Amino acid sequence: MCDNEYGIDERLYDIAALESDEESSSIPVENLCSAAKFTTNALGELICGVIGGLAVILSGMNALREDEDVNIAVGPARGREPWREIRKLLDTHLESGRIRLPASRLTGDTLRLYVRTGKPWDNCKQQHQVEVDILYKHEVTKEERGFWLQTIKDIPVFTLPAMFRFKLVAYNTRRASRDLDDLNMIITTIGRDKLLAVKENIVRHMVADDYLEMMDDLEDEGMGEIRQLILDLFDIDGSQM
Which of 157, 133, 170, 124 is nearest to 51 (CA)? Predict the structure, then answer.
């Protein structure tokens, strides 16, 4: 469908232009939730849920950020090309005019789409186009669904222990202060005992040696509490380090 005089299909966007059309920090949470609900429903036959800032907000913590968008983790998909299956599910919604998808094949581990919210799509008071990033997480399994996912406001949302795992991996990779802040907020919200109760799920397939340098950095930064929790998750005796 080409819906303008230039013959451009406005349901698709140029993958080279990934910046959002509007400042997403101005988008109300109800619009973000609407976009999240639409996208997770579109991916309904896959294991998927909201992660990141919106998941933290829905879980009861105040984590509003500038440049807010929606992040959804998906896994597992069938076959060797998970993005093909994910894209096929999303393509069925193009005719509705509610979503925009990349016009060309994606590389990397993220697929970005834009979801229109507000009337006539939903009951949100304002109209906004919401940026939604879909990330493929191979470690998410159907067998551990109870650990990974919960439902909040009819939206599948990753649990705080699952998000602790994601944030731990992210902080180890990029050392972003935002990830460290989220780790601390999760510990404060649910407590170290509840995290340790599911430690086998949190550290499954993670190699402790890959996190030793990070733990040294945490000690240098005076983050002794979170460092000790990570040592306990990996069953490492800190006195031997």
Answer: 157
pLDDT for 45 equals 79
Query: What pTM did the predictor assign?
Result: 0.82
CA Rg value for the chain? 19
Strand partners, 119: none
Helix, strand, coil abundance in the chain, percent, nearest 5: 45, 15, 40
What are the per-10-residue average pLDDT scores of the chain (241 residues)?
40 53 68 96 89 85 64 78 84 90 71 93 94 85 83 94 92 90 89 94 90 87 88 82 59
- C-beta separation of 183 from 226 below 8 A: yes
The tokens for 217 are 């950095």
Query: How far apart are alpha carbons 120 and 81 in whole angstroms?
Result: 34
Q: How far apart are CA 135 and CA 173, in angstroms?
A: 16
Distance between CA atoms of residues 169 and 185, nearest Å: 16
What is the amino acid identity at position 212? Answer: L
Distance CA 221, CA 142 (A): 37
